[in-house]
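Hey team,

Filing this mostly as a record. A colleague (T.K.) asked me to run one chain through the structure pipeline before their review meeting, and I want the input and output archived in the tracker in case anyone asks later how it was produced. No errors, nothing strange. Just documentation.

Input sequence:
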Amino acid sequence: MRLVPWWALLSSGCAPVLLIGGWNLAEWMQGPGYDPTTRTISVLAAYGMPGYGVMTGMLLVLGACYIVTAFGLRAATLLGRAALAGGGISAMVLTLVPAPPSGGSFGHGAVVTVGFGLLAIWPVLAVDRGARAPWGLRPALARGDGGASWGLRPDVAIAVSAAMCACAVWFLVGLQLQGLPGVAERVLTFAQALWPFLVVVSCWPHQVASEPA
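Output structure:
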């Protein structure tokens, strides 16, 4: 029996595809007046916008993908899986508190902050420090004791989470200083959608012995 079921591979692989496909379709529907480098994804999902329906559906399915992946990622710790599922729930809750077409919204901002936070820390919380853990649940690449094999130490998950946090800071600074928040948000959300898939892929070749009857 594999560490992760086939449907977890499917759900994790669909997440980044749905995310990019959803925002690109919504941008096309929005028209040339929308600048993806300076405008956020939330604007596309604002009530009354041409892409509102597309983005709402995308967020619901994306959140479901995160939850299904967390449920199937048996190799990760329970705390890490809970954080990943929480990020999925946050994505779904966003459909209940869409951003206004202009200006800010405390409710929307709070849900976004919680979602980004959970998806940024779950790589660290999910780490399995066992010697046989899949590479996606270990840290930085390092040569083994014998010098011939390669393994991972607990720094990789830290590096991934740190990179996501850095993107979040970039996004916030861009919002305040009229920078490129659209670029920062897209980099951050894509990274957070892609990492669960990479973790599942790392677990896929591994098998565990069947439980005795």
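Quick notes for T.K.: Residues 6-30 form the longest helix (25 residues). The chain has seven helices and two strands.
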